Amino acid sequence: MSALAVRNLDKSFGGLRVTSGVDLVVEPGERRLIIGPNGAGKTTLFNLITGELAPDRGSVALFDRDITRVPSRRRFHLGMARTYQIITLFPGETLLRNVTLALLGLSRLRWNPFARLDGQAALLEQARVTLARVGLQALADRPLGETSYGERRRVEIAMALAQNPRLLLLDEPFAGLSVEERRDVQRLVSGIPRDVTIVMIEHDMDVALDFAERITVLHFGEVVVEGTRAEVVAHPRTREIYLGE
User: What CA–CA distance (Å, rounded) separates 8 from 167?
Assistant: First the structure.
């Protein structure tokens, strides 16, 4: 069984092909890194995996279930969660309420227009446990807009983990972080249990290479190199793409 299997995935916008025949197979529990220069199609690939974009051709399977035609909202109920390159949170709400809203998306209460969040003790307790998991329990009642950028990144990861995913997609979780904040997020990601498979897009190569077990290199929407850290770093195509050699 594979956690994620992408087969022959194509996507074009007008005459611009963004992904071309992409194949990607990730095993359960694996830590996979996807790298490539700007415009390589990395975030587009994530959007195709999550169903936010529909492919022109190809298929996506989650734990051997074909989800190519499954709506995006349903994929998250099947064990998929993601973060975004640009943080998408509610700055005027507290950390606790942000995480509670993420939990609400998986609860039957989301269909009840009369349900008040502040009266849902079980959801609130679960949200506090989730914040504790990322070391932010002391800031639970602080408005998100009054936290650091690194803390917001950790809240975003907390919101994804709150959905109990089997597959977690992280889109540049270290982007814009200070050295100290990168260490905090790195410890957080490294501590995620192996029952969660992680696929990460990242530009911070020092941090990312420490994380990855296998690496996929995208260039102009195509997979050009794939292998272990040592294999990818030593491959001449990798050096050509990143160093111009």
Answer: 20
CA–CA dist 24, 227 (Å, integer)? 11
Number of Cβ within a 10 Å radius of residue 85: 16
Residue labelled with tokens 């501590």? 191
Whether 203 has a pLDDT exceeding 70, the answer reads yes
DSSP label at residue 165? -
Residues making up the chain, counted from first to last: 245
Q: pLDDT tens-digit profile of 28-60?
A: 999 999 998 888 899 999 999 999 999 999 999
159 alpha carbon, distance to own chain's centre: 11
**Within 13 Å of residue 151, how many CA atoms lie on the same side as its CB?**
20
- As beta bridge partners, residue 5 has 25, 61
Whether the per-residue pLDDT at 80 is higher than 50: the answer is yes
Whole-structure pTM value:
0.88
The four Cα atoms 177, 182, 184, 187 give a dihedral, to 10 degrees, of: 150
